[in-house]
Amino acid sequence: MRDFSWNVFAMTGDVDAYLLYKHIAQIRDTVPMDGESLQPSEHAE
Length: 45
What we know:
By secondary structure, the protein is mostly helical. 60% of the residues lie in helices and 0% in strands.
């Protein structure tokens, strides 16, 4: 979905497509992906 919204923005210049792209990127940065939170930390004792 992220790539699709970027491609739409790149081809059309549609601001809504760009905002969707940024929103997806923000969610991706804040929400852990499957398995990330289950892996032990290197700094855990």
